[in-house]
Amino acid sequence: MLTFVEENYLKAIYHLSIESNDKVTTNSIAAQIQTTPGSVTEMIKKLSTKKLIKHEKYQGVILTEEGKKVALGIIRKHRLWEVFLVNKLAFAWDEVHEIAEQLEHIQSDKLIEKLDKFLGHPTTDPHGDPIPDVNGKIKQLKKYSISELGIGEGGILIAVKKSNPELLRYLDKLGIVIGEKIKVMDIIEFDGSMQINFNKKLLIISSEIAKNLLIQKAY
Amino acid sequence: MLTFVEENYLKAIYHLSIESNDKVTTNSIAAQIQTTPGSVTEMIKKLSTKKLIKHEKYQGVILTEEGKKVALGIIRKHRLWEVFLVNKLAFAWDEVHEIAEQLEHIQSDKLIEKLDKFLGHPTTDPHGDPIPDVNGKIKQLKKYSISELGIGEGGILIAVKKSNPELLRYLDKLGIVIGEKIKVMDIIEFDGSMQINFNKKLLIISSEIAKNLLIQKAY
DNA sequence: AAATAAATTTAGAGTTATCAAAATTTAAAT
DNA sequence: ATTTAAATTTTGATAACTCTAAATTTATTT
Ligand SMILES: [Mn+2]
Ligand SMILES: [Mn+2]
Ligand SMILES: [Mn+2]
Ligand SMILES: [Mn+2]
Questions:
Q1: Which residues make up the environment of ion ligand 4, defined by Cβ < 5 Å?
Q2: Nearest to B20 by CA among B32, B5, B4
Q3: Alpha carbon B174 to its chain's center
Q4: A93 CA distance to ligand 1 centroid (A)?
Q5: In whole angstroms, what is the distance from residue A82 CA to residue B30 CA?
Q6: How far separated are the first and last CA of chain A, in Å rounded?
Q7: In this structure, is the CB of residue B5 within 7 Å of any atom belonging to strand C?
Q8: How far is the C-alpha of A187 from the C-alpha of A205, rounded, in Å?
Q9: What is the pLDDT of residues A85-131, one digit of tens each?
Q10: Predicted confidence band of residue B96 (pLDDT cuts 50, 70, 90)
Q11: Residue A103 and residue A84: Cα distance in Å, rounded?
């Protein structure tokens, strides 16, 4: 049985490993979890002896198969609870992440099975992120940030990179929601901001916002 | 902000104070929480400095108004989650207590408000226990254990004293459910077991079971 | 190739909660 | 009123996690 803290470390390492496609560094973990490098090193030792991660001194860590399975289990719980909060309790999508951070640690396999059924076996959470299945299988469909696109390119908005409440509320304000068509109309060289066509409306977004909008390319 | 452990102590002290109508002893807390008297004394000091309980050395503790409010808030959460688990996720009534023990510590006032609304503002949990309102008001209608009754007396079964899974499953087996009429038909002097009329069926129950069946007297 | 900078680990110490066992106080029995 | 028993508190030690600051290793400049 893992502690609350151990679970959070595994989840953080998983997320960082997806971003970097490589070994995860001590400092990046410290930044993600908002703790100090010294604490991270301590926990790395612990998770290593439990064979949840592999670690060579000064060389960063990677999750073992077992560690990855645990991490995906927590992410599954997190995202299912987010669906519950939005679809059943009528929370806004920017309010649910913090609460799900707590709910993801509730221990009961049966609870998650029943919750999944109650929600109608959803495949994505309110921010467009895929929900791993019971066995930890996750459908990672290739996502492109619109900041990588050129003029005239576009697709369907499927997710938002960071579930930051301020970001999500701003998107609400602009009328940007998941599932609609988005297309790059112009790129302003000066600051990288973009003119986009979202659902037949023209909008200007900063490069910082653009980075956070993830699409599935339309063929 | 209280820790998980502090919350559990306050809840335990509240429950014990209801049973005893008096100061709660160190040993009874230790038994309830399944810990040692030494640990209880340590925590008593901590909760006293936080003014959540009052304590005189060797004389037991009582909750302050603030402590009572906190305890009732946790009980409110516990019982609302139990309703959710039974009514929405189709758990059996003997399966929910353990999970609610975890869920009761999730911190979010808004979550509980919304959950309460989603459940239709229930007034009792699946075991018949009253749910405190947002302000900590609890409708403690007078409950009588049928073990205190004489032959011919009875009422409506409104609650079960202990939410012990084995007990609850046995009651299921006997067909004993909350909300139906119950009446004492005979008392066997030898071991205190009782013959009861439950919902027009005759049943024999041990004195141990009888103690746990709580009724509201019919007038 | 040295020197400097950055990242990582180690060392030492603090917090919260736990336990077993000893010491103290209160309650019960003789 | 003593003695004995029971309840409670204190003491000393441990576990999990945290921090700051010093020491070490690796990476980057010059
Ligand atoms: Mn989230
Ligand atoms: Mn978390
Ligand atoms: Mn319960
Ligand atoms: Mn609890």
A1: B 8, 101
A2: B32
A3: 22
A4: 9
A5: 37
A6: 46
A7: yes
A8: 10
A9: 999 999 999 999 999 999 999 999 999 999 999 999 999 999 989 99
A10: very high
A11: 11
